[in-house]
Predict the structure.
Amino acid sequence: MSQPHLFHLQRDTDITGVSGTGRVADGVIWPDGTATLRWRGDRASTVHWDHIGDAKAVHGHGGATRIVLTDNPTDRLGRIAEAHSKDQSAGGMTSGACNECGHSWPCPTYTWATTGRDPLATWDPADDDAEQPA
């Protein structure tokens, strides 16, 4: 991940009876995988997590609260597609590979980024940081 991502916590069920339901907090997932969360409400506070998965483990309440990305997914997908382009020399010669990942053109990442879908429907922060323990 090279850009920060905005998100909010959407609480469908208030298990503890403290925060209420709806949009209960706003946050940023930083490029290094850390996250900052700002709680809404009468007793607002800010907390910083070493990994967004930790915030989800504490505040997710078994699926009662969801992390919802709120930055513009079209812009994000455009940046991904731009990075993955067909390798081409100044003379117009090509290797037939993606200049970013080396897969045959069009590479799977470019195809994913340019295919119409709701990119937030299946996004999980763990996807961006596969080496972090669950």
